[in-house]
Design goal:
The protein is α+β, with helices and mostly antiparallel strands. Helix content is about 30%, strand content about 25%. It is built from four helices and five strands. The protein has a five-stranded antiparallel beta sheet. The longest helix is centred in the last third of the chain and has 17 residues. The mean pLDDT is about 90.
């Protein structure tokens, strides 16, 4: 998906060596649940191919949540990630891929990740 190529280009240090891991989340790995969560802010996802540390989960506000999911590109076949923040690592919210969310990603989210960019912590 072209949007993932754009995301990796905006956050290259978080995606060393390529691959298809988009990020990690705590909670359900079900697309049905993600669609339901869009009514609020969307399922939160910590971006990058490296598994988050406890400190990074805590900084994202989900340190005490349940099951960890590794989210690969194939699991996001009808979704896109919109900007959510940058607490130690970039994070976003999973949303259905529509012309509107694609435009938000292109016109706003990429710029926000670039503007708030922080080098990965050692």
């Amino acid at each position: 998906m072209a949007w993932f190529d754009d995301l990796k280009a905006a956050l290259p240090a978080y995606y060393p060596g390529g691959g298809n891991i988009v990020g990690y989340l705590r909670g359900s790995g079900s697309p049905t649940v993600w669609r339901q969560m869009e009514r609020s802010s969307g399922q939160m996802i910590i971006l990058g191919s490296k598994r988050p540390t406890k400190e990074e989960w805590d900084a994202a506000g989900v340190g005490q949540r349940g099951e960890e999911q590794t989210i690969t590109l194939d699991k996001l076949s009808s979704f896109i990630i919109l900007y959510g923040g940058f607490m130690y690592r970039p994070w976003g919210h999973i949303h259905s891929l529509t012309p509107q969310t694609q435009a938000t990603f292109t016109n706003s989210s990429l710029a926000s990740w670039k503007r708030n960019y922080m080098k990965p912590r050692p």
